[in-house]
DNA sequence: CCAACGTATAATGTATACATTATGCATTCG
DNA sequence: CGAATGCATAATGTATACATTATACGTTGG
């Protein structure tokens, strides 16, 4: 008989246990179930996740490289604690990365790709009008990721994603007041029109301002 | 009374086997002993390094997160292969990172720190005059790392280090002709004077040009 | 002769057992 | 009574054994 997975891509993800654990732990950290600075004991977590220590430890190594976990030799793992300065520095870096991505995107992005970002933007606006905070937030993140993806620069995309992941937890907590929320919407509008005109100068400025303000939005939550 | 590990750093590195393996493998890859795209079999490597599979596998996870190793589920590890585009994209990103670092460094770096970079620069010049290629190259790298360190932005420093590590192998192969070598020296001179004048504009421009040219220097070696 | 299947082998993935190191508590000495 | 020390406990680090999956090769049927 033919193998279970034939030509048509049925299920690509031959669910790797490693990735599953990494994903699960990442969620636990982002949702705050594992608090900042909290010690991570292997044995109880193994019990909870139903896996043995070996794959769990490998997952912790991965998360440590991602910067979400701190691994001290002979002293185990901790959920990494981010200081106010850490968050600020990450935002400064992300801003620079997205500005670079903006320049590259205006050069290399195809019409179709830009249209997809527009679609995300419109969807986000709909969530905004409906007052759907969670989906608004998620789509917002997706837009930033999508613009970076337009740069067609894999190392840049990876680096950005890693930093974005570290900040997710902070942003998850941050419940911006409605006034800041509205400002962010306006900034996104500016980004969108600049992108569609492929105006690198304007797009870079818009993203720069947007992420500069992002610091104001989250600085009090850290 | 006073803790055993007081201000003076006695012996920080309680030599972690993990870090030792990671370092060793990194060297093997950089020096080309493990070729690009080459399959990494765990068992023989364990024999060679004299360790068991467990810590070796954890080390491979770390290197995978660093981007030096490619890990495919159920199909093992490979030394990651970098295409011409990959190298180009990494240089574009590194350039942007160092430009950012340059701006931050001009704001926050102390006189003493800048003096240390000057010292590195002078030492590099000495190696250049002596025709000591290897130490010249190493010191060159150290200068770039040192300037980024002046930014006082930990995420930036980490990101830069990771990318720098991935490129080390390429640069290790690249034996620039003397004419390009001389040009690099001149560019470094410009960087140094700009840094000492804390002229962010000039430093950014110098670094940008330097890394733009870096692409020309390595593009044929990939 | 070619193609497809099945089996043997070897590699990776996971679990468990063992070794080493850190940590907390009780005890004892100053 | 306080501080230091030693032991018990528990955690991490490492090795090994077992399970699963991929791969290569020989075989067989068309």
What tags apply to this protein structure?
homodimer, 222 residues, mainly alpha, Four Helix Bundle (Hemerythrin (Met), subunit A), 2 domains, three-stranded antiparallel beta sheet, 9 helices, 3 strands, 5% strand, elongated, disordered N terminus, DNA-binding, transcription (chains A, B), TF_FadR/GntR_C (chains A, B), DNA-binding transcription factor activity (chains A, B), DNA-binding GntR family transcriptional regulator (chains A, B), GntR_C (chains A, B)
What do you see in this structure?
- The structure is a homodimer of 222-residue chains.
- Chain A has 222 residues and is mainly α.
- Chain A folds into two domains: 17-79, Arc Repressor Mutant, subunit A (Orthogonal Bundle), CATH 1.10.10; 84-218, Four Helix Bundle (Hemerythrin (Met), subunit A) (Up-down Bundle), CATH 1.20.120.530.
- Chain A is built from nine helices and three strands.
- A three-stranded antiparallel sheet of chain A has the order 1-3-2.
- In chain A, a hairpin with a 3-residue loop joins β2 and β3 (76-79).
- Residues 1-12 of chain A have low confidence and may be disordered.
- Chains A and B meet through α3, α4 and α7 of A and α3, α4 and α7 of B.
- Chain A binds a DNA duplex (30 and 30 nucleotides) through α3.
